[in-house]
């Protein structure tokens, strides 16, 4: 098989007394969507935040395109083409959409000042592509609707030619129509060869979109399966019981309903 | 991704209520002028304060002489308030600015009078330079405790309030240092510390031209990109308002004559220093990465860090800027007093913080403007100046200024609550 785009090996992360992530290994191939599933508090966000450079991990290694990658800051992650849509969106509410899109990598004029007009120009283009009705992009994002804020967070991740995209509960705040938009966007990005970690606590959000699912429970990896080879019930069993499909008994599956 | 366009015609946009019909008159007005409603309220408050004080003082308040003094008095607080805006926007506070002013002022005066030969032409510029450098060092010291040590700014600068006041005493063991270099004294805006009628007019007209140039240039650039624009008349009206303010200011400053003569004073040097500081600080806040990062950190510190912003370095830089501004304020203060005394700047932190907050800087962080802080400084100084004219005792004045500070923060809280 080809080299994986990303390989996270034996990642661990502890917060005080909480072992948030415990010896978890996952990988991701180009053009692939890997669904990362598990209850709230399972450690999904923490795991991908170590890939995004938000926290250094306590143990484990990350490989990008088969090479060891040292990711200690968000800047490091970006330099490997890793872009993240955080569960919290991570927007500066007081700034407008262009300022948020380019935060940390502003476009500058020849005089070394912020080129707000160029940033607004690019922002209008990308946001219009996502949402043609998006007009008030110069407002502070706190004045925007949940869907618009989500669009800004998504636009920021796809603006810079990401190779690896992390989407942490990207549809949590969205209505059905906007959720469909995100699904379509994911298909589109997949075709461009981008690898996507799609994180959700809800199986139904992820099942139809992902090529494989990795399930976490209490900080540990339960297992990874090809989506086409398992049923929703079997994955539900992994999430709730923490058992692999082959270990799940008929009683177990019955107890889920 | 052209095929996405169809699916995204969502209804989410309507929630934000951008239809111009639904905007109130006030909102429309602030949108056209680019001034927020809060700043406009403060401008209104200033007008009311001026009119009331003018009536109560039988017309003394709004004389050129008093307005000239008011402008000079506002400059020290104004200079420091521009830095306090950045500090508060980034969700910090600096309680030490008055003491740092005192300490740096003593250092400058001591160097000028007792270390370097008084009368040498290089003496006073060098002491200013060293003062500003020392201000930057003070900023690194306090900023490092806050950013690297993780000690809240409230505590670090409360400690600084005490330490630098002690430092101000230790420079000369409490002795007052005087007199200072005669040229240096001009920076304080004394009898000769203004630039005269011709230079004032020249500067004023240049400023009007610059305002018109920048407004129209920004407009041309937006037009080139095809962005939505304000109506041309709104833009021209704004230029006209600015021009009227600038020319009015020059007229008033030129209407106050030097003692026993009919030679107009013109714009005082300390006010020019403050205006230069305002321009530099506005540039820093609006057109540099540093300024953008300060506001991002204030809006959402976590988002700022996740965006790859070096939050620690930016925090230290904020306090370095604040320290350098304290040095500039110390220069104006010592030049005005023609002396260095260890009590200079006592309680100035209150006026500076109040000026920033009155001028629309939110203690919740992320919100504030440099021109607003100057407006705040002028409001604070107007109240103080008016009460002096009315013969209000200094004890009473302290009570009023304290009340104004609390009321301003209360206004900030209520204003923020109503917008949620
Ligand atoms: N910054 C943090 N500090 C302390 N504990 C944390 C922090 N972030 C997450 N945790 C804890 O780590 C565990 C995993 O959380 P998280 O990764 O957010 O789970 P998920 O995204 O799967 O819902 C939880 O018990 C949570 O309370
Ligand atoms: Mg999570």
Can you walk me through this structure?
The complex is a heterodimer of chains A (257) and B (420). Chain A contains 9 helices and 10 strands. With 257 residues, chain A is of the alpha/beta class. Chain A folds into 2 domains: 6-81 and 161-255, 3-Layer(aba) Sandwich (Rossmann fold); 94-160, no CATH class. Chain A has a 6-stranded mixed beta sheet, with helices on both faces. The termini of chain A are far apart. With 420 residues, chain B is mostly helical. Chain B is 71% helix and 0% strand. The longest helix of chain B has 30 residues, at 196-225. Chain B starts with a helix and ends with a helix. The interface between A and B is large, with 52 and 39 residues. The structure holds adenosine-5'-diphosphate (ADP) and magnesium ion. Adenosine-5'-diphosphate (ADP) binds next to strand 2 and helix 1 of chain A.
CATH architecture of the largest domain in chain A: 3-Layer(aba) Sandwich
Query: Total helix count of chain A?
Result: 9
Assign the CATH architecture of the largest domain in chain B: Orthogonal Bundle
User: Number of folding domains of chain B?
Assistant: 2
- Helical run tally of chain B: 17
Mean residue pLDDT of chain A: 91
- Radius of gyration of chain A, in Å, reads 19 Å
User: Helicity range of the residues of chain A?
Assistant: 25-40%
- Give the class-level CATH name of the largest domain in chain B: Mainly Alpha
Estimate what percentage of residues of chain B fall within beta strands: under 5%
Q: How would you sum up the major sheet of chain A?
A: 6 strands, mixed
Task: For the record, give the distance between the C-alpha atoms at the N and C termini of chain A, rounded to a whole number.
Answer: 38 Å
Which oligomeric form is depicted?
heterodimer
Mean pLDDT of chain B: 91
**Uncertain runs of chain A:** none
Structural class of chain B: mainly alpha
The CATH superfamily of the largest domain in chain A turns out to be P-loop containing nucleotide triphosphate hydrolases
């Amino acid at each position: 098989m080809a080299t994986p785009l990303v390989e996270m090996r034996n990642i661990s992360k502890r917060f005080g007394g909480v072992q948030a992530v415990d010896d978890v290994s996952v990988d991701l191939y180009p053009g692939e969507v890997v669904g990362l599933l598990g209850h709230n508090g399972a450690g999904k966000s923490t795991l991908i935040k170590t890939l995004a450079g938000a926290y250094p991990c306590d143990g484990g290694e990350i490989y990008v395109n088969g090479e060891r990658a040292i990711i200690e800051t968000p800047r490091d992650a970006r330099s490997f083409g890793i872009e993240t849509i955080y569960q919290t969106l991570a927007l500066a509410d007081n700034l407008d959409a262009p300022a948020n899109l380019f935060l940390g990598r502003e476009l500058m004029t020849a005089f070394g000042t912020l080129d707000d007009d160029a940033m607004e120009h690019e922002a209008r283009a990308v946001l219009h592509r996502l949402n043609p009705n998006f007009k008030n992009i110069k407002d502070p994002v706190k004045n925007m609707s949940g869907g618009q804020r989500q669009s800004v967070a998504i636009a920021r991740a796809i603006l810079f030619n990401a190779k690896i995209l992390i989407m942490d509960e990207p549809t949590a705040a969205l209505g059905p129509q906007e959720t469909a938009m995100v699904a379509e966007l994911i298909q589109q990005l997949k075709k461009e060869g981008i690898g996507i970690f799609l994180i959700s606590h809800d199986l139904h959000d992820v099942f139809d979109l992902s090529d494989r699912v990795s399930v976490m429970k209490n900080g540990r990896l339960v297992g990874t399966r090809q989506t086409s080879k398992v049923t929703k019930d079997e994955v539900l069993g992994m999430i709730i019981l923490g058992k692999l499909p082959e270990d799940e008994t008929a009683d177990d599956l019955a107890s889920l309903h | 991704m052209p095929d996405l366009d169809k699916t995204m015609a969502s209804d989410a946009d309507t929630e934000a209520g951008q239809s111009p019909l639904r905007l109130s008159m006030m909102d429309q007005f602030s949108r056209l002028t680019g001034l927020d409603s809060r700043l406009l309220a403060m401008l209104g408050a200033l007008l009311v304060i001026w009119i009331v004080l003018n009536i109560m003082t039988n017309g003394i308040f709004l004389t050129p002489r008093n307005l000239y003094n008011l402008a000079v008095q506002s400059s020290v607080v104004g200079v420091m308030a521009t830095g306090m805006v950045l500090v508060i926007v980034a969700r910090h506070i600096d309680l030490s600015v008055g003491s740092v002013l005192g300490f740096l002022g003593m250092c400058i005066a001591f160097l000028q009078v007792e270390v370097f030969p008084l009368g040498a032409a290089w003496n006073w510029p060098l002491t200013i330079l060293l003062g500003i450098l020392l201000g930057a060092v003070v900023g690194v010291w306090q900023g490092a405790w806050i950013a690297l040590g993780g000690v809240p700014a409230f505590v670090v600068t409360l400690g600084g309030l005490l330490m630098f006041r002690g430092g101000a005493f230790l420079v000369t063991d409490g002795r007052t240092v005087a007199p200072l270099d005669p040229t240096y004294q001009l920076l304080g805006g004394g009898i000769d510390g203004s630039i005269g009628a011709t230079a004032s007019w020249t500067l004023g007209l240049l400023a009007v031209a610059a305002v018109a140039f920048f407004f129209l240039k920004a407009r041309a650039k937006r037009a080139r990109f095809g962005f939505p624009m304000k109506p041309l008349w709104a833009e021209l009206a704004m230029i006209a308002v600015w021009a009227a303010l600038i020319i009015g200011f020059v007229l008033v400053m030129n209407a106050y004559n030097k003692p026993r003569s009919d030679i107009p004073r013109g714009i005082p040097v300390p006010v020019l220093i403050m205006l230069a500081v305002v321009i530099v600080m506005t540039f820093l806040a609006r057109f540099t990465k540093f300024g953008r990062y300060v506001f991002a950190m204030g809006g959402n510190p976590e988002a700022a860090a996740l965006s790859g912003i070096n939050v620690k370095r930016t925090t230290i830089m904020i306090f370095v800027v604040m320290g350098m501004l304290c040095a500039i304020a110390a220069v104006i203060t010592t030049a005005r007093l023609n002396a260095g005394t260890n009590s200079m700047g006592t309680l100035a932190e209150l006026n500076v913080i109040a000026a920033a907050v009155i001028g629309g800087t939110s203690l919740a962080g992320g919100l504030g403007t440099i021109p607003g802080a100057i407006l705040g400084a002028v409001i604070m100084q107007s109240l103080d100046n008016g009460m002096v004219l009315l013969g209000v005792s200094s004890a009473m004045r302290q009570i009023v200024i304290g009340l104004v500070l609390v009321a301003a923060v209360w206004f900030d809280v209520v204003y923020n609550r109503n917008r949620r």
